[in-house]
Amino acid sequence: MRVLCVSLLFACYFVLVSAQALPASATGADAMGNKQKPVAKSLFSSLTKSLPQDKRPLFMELMKKMRLTKQMKKEDKKAVIVQLDAEIHKLLGDEYKKYRSVQEEVHKERQALSALQTPPPPPPPPPPPAIMSSPFKGKKKTGGKGMKKLKPTTR
Fold this sequence. Notes:
Elements: H1 2-21, H2 24-27, H3 39-50, H4 56-68, H5 74-92, H6 96-117
Helix pairs in contact: 3-6, 4-5
């Protein structure tokens, strides 16, 4: 019972400390405690709203397919992404540059966020202490051949 209580207290403490250690941008809240929209969603949303009405549904469908590529195997993913990117380029035409700039901005912000959330790797362990060599190391014991065997005495 004590072990359970101690482990629950430790878990609560760990959650509390880790929540305080995260900066406001990593938790999705601003300085006032208000939740923020994900950056990627708002940037792509503004791009979608700037497109003509006839291109929006096609663009949304292509973006949905692009999101689904995350679930694919690594071998198949590259070819599908290249194909979808070509279709998006064909659909958007001159607006493609704006799409790529939004995509790069989202990528940079996600990298910055992941850099904040992932702690640096722990330092390598120190090398083992040098063992002093024994003066007897390497010498063979001369116990078996040079000594006389004693006969057991019977009294």
